[in-house]
């Protein structure tokens, strides 16, 4: 009888251990899958708002009420799903810390995230969403270069209340709405393609991680490489179709037209319309004859140097292909940040976090 009881006890312990592992595995899967939904809606809702503002000048700020409602709805659904299927014990088994200090941050949104409590599963989910929102906002600021300051609430550095800091935001592109113009069409294409590529990359690598593979193994996997290459090709095609042969520059030329085809020198577009009673003519300059002359070549307002870089200034951008390469670099870095936050096994070594933004030598806390 004692031997039989010992057998039942052993089987019970093994079954309990197996059930605990299954619960943790399900929890990890839900964290990755559900928070990907949040990332997708957060990016798409904000991007759509920025597209509308860029084209017609309204709403006054993003996210607007429509975007905020969409984000709030997905937050409620995601948080509820994770809270229902995860416990604090599951989170501990998966290697998550008992606090939100994923990075040694003391300022801005990252400082706010680091200080959040994690005493319930709901607080844990809010913690991850805080860090992810900061990274996603940084990505939007890179994509929507002419509205970067608005995206980050006027601060692209470590004190930003919205964004993780951009590595190299100087020289800052002209901050303005591009209007219903070819430039605006190009910017919309960059936003749409950039958002879709990041979501596809995060989904592809997240699915690979759920198979038990490390970051290095996933990136070396031929199926993963094929999916990422297909996503890059699609992204490049969309941007090429929307932007044509336009090249990125921080400040595109304009002419301040007065009467007839006459023009006057203006310090910027606002000076032209508000102080000089002129009309802004894009792609032109006030020539030596005092008239608005067409400037050869097509350009669009964007970063002149890639703001995602280990050293500043970032990589010089002189062509559309350079801009696409900058989007790739930024998306890869942001996805690494997003995944390392939610894959904590093996002390974080399997999916290591990149250095903190703006501090190439700083490391994320494990």
What is this entry, summarized?
The protein is mainly alpha-helical and 366 residues long. It has eleven helices and seven strands. It is elongated and about 75 Å long.
Structure explained in plain terms:
- The chain is mainly alpha-helical and 366 residues long.
- The protein has two domains: 261 residues, no CATH class; 41 residues, no CATH class.
- 55% of the residues lie in helices and 6% in strands.
- A three-stranded antiparallel β-sheet has the order 3-2-4. A two-stranded parallel ribbon has the order 1-7. Strands 5-6 form a two-stranded antiparallel sheet.
- A hairpin with a 5-residue loop joins strand 5 and strand 6.
- Helix 1 runs antiparallel to helix 2 and helix 5 packs antiparallel against helix 11.
- The radius of gyration is 24 Å and the shape is elongated.
- The N terminus and C terminus are likely disordered.
Outline the fold blueprint.
Layout: H1 2-56, H2 65-85, H3 88-93, H4 108-114, H5 121-143, H6 148-151, H7 182-209, H8 215-220, H9 222-243, E1 247-249, E2 254-257, E3 263-264, H10 269-275, E4 279-282, E5 284-286, E6 292-294, E7 299-301, H11 320-342
Parallel strand pairs: 1-7
Antiparallel strand pairs: 2-3, 2-4, 5-6
Helix pairs in contact: 1-2, 1-5, 1-7, 2-5, 4-5, 5-11, 7-9, 7-11, 9-11
